[in-house]
Amino acid sequence: MNTQRIESGTPDGDALGFFESLYSGWLEIRENHRLYLHFIISRNKNKGNTQALLRQWLAQGYDVRVVMPRPVMQHILKKLQFVPSMETLPEWYEGIVECWHS
Q1: Most Cβ neighbours (<10 Å): which of 23, 26, 55, 61?
Q2: If we measure between CA atoms, which residue out of 24, 34, 39, 26 comes closest to residue 2?
């Protein structure tokens, strides 16, 4: 499987709108336009940047998945009609992990 880890503040991150000035964190892009957001911290809380980023990715046709979201992120995901499920991501985690998807 072809996967690529992308961190905020890198050229690949910037191309996805994952700017270091707005976010800290990392994501993973896989085949079939699947994007896994593993970790994100908004540098400007309560400004809607994270929600806008997720909407942008969805509009661009990404199959967006958020791994083990915290309660604040779960609130955003529910607004966007994401649902929780379980997946195995052996490259990064042992066992089965919670993964929300659109």
Answers
A1: 23
A2: 34
Question: Which residue matches tokens 């998807």?
Answer: 101
Residue with the two structure tokens 């964190």: 25
> d(Cα 59, Cα 42) in Å, to the nearest integer?
20
Tokens of 2: 């072809």
Which of these, 14, 60, 11, 51, lies nearest to 33 by C-alpha position? 60
- Tell me which of 31 and 58 has the higher pLDDT: 58
Average pLDDT estimate for 21-45: 93
Q: Say if residue 70 is exposed, middle or buried (CB neighbours under 10 Å; 0-12, 13-18, 19+).
A: exposed
User: What is the tens place of the pLDDT at every residue in 68-101?
Assistant: 999 999 999 999 999 999 999 988 899 999 999 9
Q: How many Å separate Cα 32 from the centre of its chain? A: 15
Rounded distance between C-alpha atoms, residue 45 and residue 70, angstroms: 14
